[in-house]
Each structure stands twice: as structure tokens, then as C-alpha cells.
Write a structure and sequence with these properties.
Blueprint: E1 20-23, E2 25-26, E3 45-46, H1 49-63, E4 72-76, H2 85-98, E5 104-108, H3 111-116, H4 119-128, E6 130-138, H5 142-147, H6 154-166, E7 170-175, H7 185-199, E8 203-206, H8 216-222, H9 231-243, E9 251-253, E10 266-267, H10 272-283, H11 287-298, H12 311-330, H13 337-344
Parallel strand pairs: 1-4, 4-5, 5-6, 6-7, 7-8, 8-9
Antiparallel strand pairs: 2-3, 9-10
Helix pairs in contact: 1-2, 2-4, 6-7, 7-9, 9-10, 11-12
Length: 349
């Protein structure tokens, strides 16, 4: 989208909700990942330094005296790190000159792009003020990376992640439980843990897979080629993944609406057993209780398992669950609570 004042891209990480957004390129240079819909039907465009500086000037003019309140900035779009290192440094320095209170600057980076930069280049970016890289690892399982057309290998994921860490740049790696569907779930969990163990990123951010209408993965689902995991199976997969994380000190972050269990968060290794116990507690619930929590969470009534103790909310969700079951029965079965919720939430990402 375009702001009335300056060029702004379509997305940013949840952790950058309060950040100044500066678009240094438009759309995604790869744009082939089969689960992603954000940049489909768009063309990648580089922006000149002059264009970017004019956007920074426009943003500074918009904020006026409020520039002193802006402490974080996010450089858009999907792979800002693609810029020449010297030019990206110039952007960062100019941004800091117009927004002097900014102390954290972050951006997205594709693994292949980061892997092509030297550690020295990345250190130069760090010294200029690039604080953090957000990288979509998604999976560490080679066959799955090929299947979703991620455009990189597990080895490239490891190399890029280690380079960022060696350069002293804070690293957030995004994983997508459920992305392997029913056929590749185990390999996805185990191999993703292996890659994360080799990187030891600062943050592991959980983004459970949701098949988005209109994507190539959606087409595969409609053909029966891809069979999505249920919410409960996704929790089982995440448990397997976390149980295989060893020798790292990453912080696991669950900050997205698509994650069923928001309480699966903490710092490794000290919080590992607590996170596993939270998943075990959920998986051990009777099916009615699991479905009650699933419906309540997906529709915004529950935030965590403790919320089911709230009798007023519980009664409200009991009524919704009963209605869903009646709808399924009236249609003669053939679909599940997961199916109903997917349809109800199809516009959420």
C-alpha cells in the first residue's frame, strides 16, 4: 500500500508494531514461496537512494516534533538486505540523522541473500546501526523446502544464520509448525530443530501454518495433494520440535494469533521443560476440553488455558461449540471443527 505521505509496504513483524516503517524496496525478489500470498501478482522494484531519503524526509516532516518519540524503525519490504551494503549503510545513517532517538533498526532478510554477504559486510551494517534481522526459516527439512519452493537449502539457512550471529546482529528465525502437512510432519520438526541447534538464534518465533486461500499451497490442498495438520496435530509437532532443541539459548516467542498455545514461550534451556509440560497438559485433556479451548482461542474468547476457568466465558464458548457440532451433524458430517474454524478465519494470517 502507499501512504498519502510516503511509500509504506504491506507487512512488518508483530514485534515491530510500534516501529517507524521505511520502505527501501518494493515487494519480494523471490516471490515463489507456495504458502505466501503477500506479494503475489506484484513485481519486485528496487528504490533509489534518493527515493528512500525523500521518504525518510517525508516521514520526519509528518512526525514533526514527534520524531523524538520514535525509538525503533523497520526497513521494508521482503528482503531489504538485498541492497548494496554501502547503500544500505547510507540509508541507516541518514535515517538516524533525521530520527536521532532511533536506537533499534531491523529488517527482513532472505537466507540466500544474507549468505552471500561476508561477515565483515554484516558487521559494517551492525556498526552503522542495523540491530536485528528477521529471517523466515520456516523449515530445516530439505524435501519440504523444495516442496514449498523456499529457494534455499538447510545448509544455506545455517550459513546465513551463523553469519548474522557472528556479526553481532540480533537474529529472529521464524518457524512454521504444520507446514509439512501430514506427510512431512516428523521430518519438518526434527530437521528444523537440527538447523536451529546449528544456528542458536536470539529468537525463535513461532508462526503456525494456515493455508491461505489463493496460494499455490491452497491449490495443492484442494487437489488433496497437501493435507493440513489439525490444531492438535500441530501442537504435537511443535512439541517434537522443541524436545529436539539442544545446546542453545534462544528465546522462543509465540506472538501470533495463529498459534493455538500462546503460553509456549520462554528461554532455552531453562524454560524447556515448562513449555513441554504446557503442551503435554493440553494434549492430555479430554477431547471436549481440547475442542472447547480450540474454539474459544480461535474466536478470541480464551488467551490461554487458564481462561477456561472463567465460567462466563466458558459458557459462551460451550454454546458456540454446541452450535458448530449441530452444523456439522446437519450437513451429514464429512468435515471437522478444524474445517469450520479455517473457513471462519480464512482472512486472518
Amino acid at each position: 500500500m502507499f501512504s498519502d505521505t510516503y511509500d509504506v509496504g504491506p507487512i512488518r513483524p508483530p514485534s515491530e508494531a510500534g516501529s517507524l516503517l521505511i520502505r527501501v524496496s518494493r515487494n519480494c525478489p523471490w516471490n515463489k514461496c507456495e504458502f505466501c500470498h503477500v506479494y503475489k501478482e506484484t513485481k519486485f522494484e528496487k528504490k533509489s537512494l534518493d527515493e528512500i531519503k525523500k521518504d525518510i524526509d517525508a516521514a520526519a516532516q509528518l512526525y514533526g516534533s514527534g520524531v523524538s518519540s520514535i525509538s525503533t524503525a523497520f526497513l521494508q519490504d521482503a528482503n531489504a538486505i538485498l541492497m548494496k551494503t554501502s547503500e544500505l549503510i547510507e540509508v541507516i545513517i541518514y535515517l538516524k540523522s533525521r530520527f536521532p532517538a532511533v536506537s533499534r533498526i531491523t529488517t527482513y532478510g532472505r537466507a540466500q541473500t544474507v549468505a552471500r554477504k561476508t561477515v565483515s559486510e554484516l558487521k559494517e551494517l551492525k556498526d552503522a546501526g542495523l540491530s536485528r534481522l528477521h529471517m523466515g526459516l520456516e523449515s530445516g527439512y530439505g524435501p519440504l523446502l523444495d516442496y514449498i519452493r523456499k529457494g534455499c537449502s538447510p545448509e544455506e539457512l545455517i550459513v546465513s544464520g551463523r553469519k548474522a550471529m557472528d556479526a553481532g546482529i540480533s537474529l529472529s528465525e521464524y518457524i512454521m509448525p504444520g507446514l509439512g502437512g501430514k506427510t512431512m510432519s516428523e521430518g519438518h520438526a526434527v530437521e528444523t530443530a537440527r538447523v536451529l541447534n546449528a544456528i542458536d538464534p536470539d529468537f525463535i518465533r513461532v508462526r503456525s501454518c494456515r493455508v491461505i486461500p489463493g496460494t499455490p499451497l491452497d491449490e495443492k490442498t484442494r487437489r488433496g495433494e497437501f493435507i493440513p495438520l489439525s490444531d492438535f496435530e500441530t501442537v504435537e509437532e511443535l512439541r517434537l520440535l522443541i524436545s529436539n532443541l539442544e545446546g542453545i539459548t534462544s528465546e522462543i516467542v509465540s506472538d501470533h494469533i495463529l498459534n493455538l498455545l500462546q503460553e509456549v514461550r520462554g528461554t532455552l534451556p531453562k524454560d524447556k521443560e515448562r513449555m513441554l509440560a504446557a503442551m503435554d497438559d493440553f494434549l492430555a485433556l479430554p477431547i471436549h476440553e481440547k475442542e472447547l479451548f480450540q474454539v474459544g482461542t480461535r474466536l478470541g474468547w480464551f488467551g490461554d488455558l487458564e481462561d477456561m476457568r472463567d465460567n462466563a466465558r466458558r459458557r459462551r464458548v460451550e454454546g458456540i461449540l454446541s452450535g458448530i457440532r449441530e452444523e456439522i451433524a446437519a450437513q451429514g458430517g464429512g468435515f471437522t471443527i478444524d474445517d469450520v474454524l479455517r473457513e471462519a478465519l480464512k482472512d486472518r494470517i
